[in-house]
Structures are given as structure tokens and as C-alpha cells.
Amino acid sequence: MESLPRALLEEIIKRITRLTDLNSLSLVSKMFYTVESENRYSMCVGCGLYPAKLAMASLCSRFPNLCKVEINYSGWTAENGLQLDNQGLSVLATCCLSLTDLTLSLCSNINDSGLCSLAHYKKLTCLKFNTVPGISSAGLFTVAVGCKSLSALCLVGLEKVANVNWLEYLGSKGSLEELVVVACKGISQYDLLKFGPGWMKLQKFEFDEVKGRYEIEQPHDPSHMAQYQYKYDFCCESLKVLTLAQIVNLPEIGLRFFLSKCKSLEKLCLHYVVGIYDSDMITLSHSCSNLRSLSLQLTPLFIGGLQARDCRTPLTDDSLKALALSCPMLETVELTFFACEPMYPSEISFTQNGVLMLIQSCPIRDLILTGANFFNDEGMKALSSAQYLETLELMDCVAITDTGMRFLAHTPRLINLTLRQCHGFSDHAVAEVAHARNLESLIVEE
Questions:
Q1: Is the pLDDT of residue 306 over 90?
Q2: Do the Cβ atoms of 269 and 244 come closer than 8 Å?
Q3: What are the tens digits of pLDDT across the range 144-158?
Q4: Residue 329: which H helix or E strand, with range?
Q5: Which of 26, 56, 65, 374 could form a disulfide with 33 if both were Cys (CB 3.0 to 4.6 A apart)?
């Protein structure tokens, strides 16, 4: 192979995705070693860095064209030696001049001082910080000011971030296209509204407070005045992916303003959001005709007065009907019902007819149902005529029996089937479906 033109050899190396294969290839000859090193554009390291600073310098020297680097200390113990610190991060910043994408996960020895070295990266476009306890608002502001090309920022588990001056700065520049904030205690949904003009360019937004589903505090928006109509005037028509998880919107609007303004929205995830109503979903469906993917994770909430308390999930078939009528491109649907007991069917406000109406009206290719105890053999019979359905995942759907499972043998396009904790049907019925459909993928978990 050494007689191959260098350009052809580089193309071959680009098509090799397994790290072990690349490492083996580099041992074949000096030329292969050189070409492979020059064409290695991504790297993930962590506990194997020892001593960390010298190992990082060596790796940067061997792979001079690295564009994407992840430093992940998952599973780290003291026996692995000292973690990479601020000086080691400075080595990375000095040696990897082509770096555009950096992820730091569980790096306990890196703090705001280390982020100063990143501020000199003019090419850096993507930054992800996952549980880096030393990072605070000051470090994020340094990055916001220095990294002029930053277009994606992901923050997970940063407990020392107490203000959002960095977010206001990024919003004023309007350069971010992706923003993810998960489990950052010092950042509320109302702080995020200070992003202001930045919403105009943003294409992906995820916010998850990660609080207990039954321990969610009522929010407070200091700008809210009850005697005036409450609204936000931000333009977010570029937003394509939106995830809101475990937030409360009662009695104030908060981040619900997205649902009436995201005309380009293609993927929506609403996970255990308190304060979402059918009226919101109807507004959404009218605004988002390009919606392709929908994920709803719902849990029963107490509704009613003290004398007659009721407990049920917040959305009804009216939401599904609106989506069926106004979202003709919807092809992926996930419906998850948490803590809904089969002995209390009224806890789930969706009905089987509502779900089937959505499936029959939209070109649903992927369907995931979890805890849908209302979905039974009649529903499976209707699925057997779903002309677009290719992937079906059922978890804890207790009302489905062998009779319902056998209907899937007649589903026209079904090629992927996943069954988890569904004890109402037998292995024999599943085997019949697998043989009849010639499935590409079959996963069964007890």
C-alpha cells in the first residue's frame, strides 16, 4: 500500500472510523504513521493521560491538525494520577491551533483561570462543559468575550454560575446558534430571557432544570406585573430544535413564549413541564407546520379543589387533534407517561383514539410509547395498517396481548421493533412477527 498516492491513502484513512483500526494502521509503516497522524481530526482522552500535562503535549505534537477534542474524566479515581489542570489546558490551547470543538467533562482541576487560555482561540466554534465545578460566571464571560467565532455552548451541571452577564453579552453579539443549559442551579428560565437579540439566530435551545418531578418550585419572574398583559417580544423564527424539561410555567408565562413564535421548529421535546395546556399545543401546531419530531413526557398532576381532587396528565386529545390537522410533516412521535397506574386509567388524558388519529393523519415513521396503559390490541390492529411506520418501540404497555402483537406481522414497512418490560404477550407471538416481517432490528428486554 505504500505505493499508493498520498491523496488516495488520506481518503482511505478518512473512511476508517474505529480508533483501534487507526492505531493499528499507524504501526504498519512510517509513512502510514505520518499520514494517519496528520489526518486525525478528533480525539477523546481522560483517565489515560499520565502525567497529564506531558501526555497532552505529546498528543498535540503527534496529531497537529486536531479540530475536535474531548477530555472526559468519567470513572476517574486517585489511582489514575492527577487530572489535567489549567496548565495542561494551556498546552492544548498553544499546540492545537486548528481546534474548533472542545468538550470538558468532570475536569475537577480546571477553573476560570484555565478558561483564559481558551479566550485566544479565534477558531473555536463549539464549547461544552459537563460538571466542571471550578467554572463560574467570570470564566464564561471571559470565553464569551474572547471566542469571537463561538456558535455552540453547552453547560451541564455548573453549580457556581450565579449570574448571566456572559449570556447577555453573547445575546448582544447574536453569534450563538446552539445553547444548552442543563442542571445549572444558578440559571433560571427567566435569566435565559436576558439572551435578548440572541434568540433571532439561535437554531437549537435546550433547558432542563433537573429538579424532582414532585419537588418543582413555583417560579418568579421579577418583571411580571399582574395588572398588565404579559408577553415577550423576542423573535426566534430560526429555532429548529427546542427542549424544555422539568420547568414550571404557573402562573407566569416564562419560556412558553417559544410555542407561539417558532415558525421554523422541526423538533420539540416537552418533558415534565408544568403549566402546558391544550391551548399552547394548539397555538404551536398553527405556528409550526414544519414540525417533524415530537417528544412528550408527562406525569399526572393534581387538578381541582380540595373537596374533589383529581390527578391526570395535563394534555388531552385536543392537542393531538391540532397536531394531526396542522403538522403534515410529523414523522417521529414519542409519548411517555410516568407514574401512571393501570388501575386508574383516567390519569392519562390521551386516549387510544387520539393517538391513532395522529398516526393516521401524519406520515409517522417512528413511534415510541412508554407507560401507555390505554394502548391495547385494538390499537395494535390499527398500527398494522400504518403505511409509513418503520420503527416501533413499546415499553411498559401492559394492555397488549399476543393477539395485538401478531397484528404487527402485517404492518407494511415495519423493520425495527423494540419491546421493553411488556409482559402481556409471549415470546412466541414476538417470534411470529420477526419471521413475518424479516426485521432488521429486534430488541426484547424484560
A1: no
A2: yes
A3: 999 999 999 999 999
A4: none
A5: 26
The values of phi and psi at residue 382, to 5°, are: -65, -35
Q: Is the pLDDT assigned to residue 220 strictly greater than 60?
A: no
Beta-carbon contacts of residue 190 (< 8 Å; ≥ 6 apart): 219, 220, 221, 222, 223, 254
Pairing of strands 241-245, 204-208: parallel
Q: Indicate if the pLDDT at residue 181 is higher than 90.
A: yes
Q: How far apart are CA 125 and CA 318, in angstroms?
A: 42
Is residue 287 within 8 A of residue 261, CB to CB? The reply is yes
The set of cell numbers assigned to 28 is 504498519
Name the band, by pLDDT with cuts 50, 70 and 90, for residue 227.
very low
- To 10 degrees, the CA torsion angle through 104, 100, 27, 57? -60
Each residue of 16-55: pLDDT tens digit?
767 676 676 666 666 666 766 777 888 999 998 989 999 9
Residues in the chain: 446
The tens digit of pLDDT for each residue in 50-80 reads 899 999 999 999 888 899 999 999 999 999 9
The Cα-based distances of 233 to 143, 165, 194, 249 in angstroms read 28, 20, 12, 18
Q: What CA–CA distance (Å, rounded) separates 194 from 197?
A: 9
Side-chain half-sphere CA neighbours of 86 within 13 A: 10
Burial degree of 223 (CB within 10 A; 0-12, 13-18, 19+): exposed
Helix, strand or coil, per DSSP, at residue 294: strand
Question: How deeply is 78 buried, as exposed, middle or buried, from its count of CB atoms within 10 A (0-12, 13-18, 19+)?
Answer: exposed
What one-character-per-residue DSSP string does 356-421 give?
A: HHHHHHTT--EEEEES-TT--HHHHHHHTT-SS--EEEEES-TT--HHHHHHGGG-TT--EEEEES
Is residue 39 within 8 A of residue 16, CB to CB? The reply is: no
Burial level of 205, CB count in 10 A (0-12/13-18/19+)?
buried
Which helix (H) or strand (E) element contains residue 67? none
Q: How far is CA 375 from CA 25, 215, 351, in A?
A: 52, 29, 8
**What does the pLDDT average to over 202-212?**
85
Kindly state the helix (H) or strand (E) to which residue 275 belongs, with its residue range.
none
267-271 vs 204-208, strand pairing mode? unpaired
Q: Name 113's Cβ contacts closer than 8 Å, sequence gap at least 6.
A: 86
Q: What angle do CA 73, 76, 80 make, to 5 degrees?
A: 110
